[in-house]
Every structure is written in structure tokens, then in C-alpha cells.
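Researcher: Structure prediction, please.
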Amino acid sequence: MHANLIPPYNASLFSKRGRKWLEEQPVAHDQRRVILRHAGELDRLGLELKQIDEDLAQTALQEPRVKQLMTITGVNMIVALSVLAAIGDIGRFSSPEKLVSYFGLNPRVRQSGDKAA
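Model: Predicted structure follows.
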């Protein structure tokens, strides 16, 4: 669009109105084909992502650990599944402290001298 001196669209270009605006712009036929091909690819990827989200939701509904993690404020299904994926087999951690260290959640104070900070 910039190469054709068309000012930017001031709303969501990927909404219905944005797509209609995009299709109405005066660009060369080959450029229009490229634009529409990219828009179609974006639609296809959006459908694939929707299917992946549905599959993840089904997995989350069947996993009690996901439900338990989601009771923490700010932890949604994706975060809970990501945490479980990062942990893997919980048995590889010999103690809860090792798991906390793995995630870098154990604060330490490193100081010189013998007085508390």
C-alpha cells in the first residue's frame, strides 16, 4: 500500500470492514493477487490455530493438574499447559525446592560481610 501512496487504514485491517477496504484499493492486478493470497493464508492459519486451541482445551479439561494450576490468579489454560510442558515428568525433581529453582523462583541474597541486608 505504501508503494502505491495509499494511506494506512486506521482500524483493524483484518476485520470485515478492513478486508473490504483492502479489496477496494486501486492496486495493480498482480499486487491484488498477492494481497488476497496473503489474506487467504492468514485465514487458513487462523482456522488451524482455532483447531489447536480446541485440542488444547480438550486436553486441559481432562488434566486435573491444569485445573489445579488455573486456580492461581493470572494462570489461564495456556499458561497452565505451558508450565506442565516445561516441567515434564515431575519425578525428575528430587524436591519441591529443586522445581522452584528450575523456574528461577527462589530469591537469593548474595552479599559480602556478616550483617543481614
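Model: Residues 29-62 form the longest helix (34 residues).
Researcher: Thanks, that helps.
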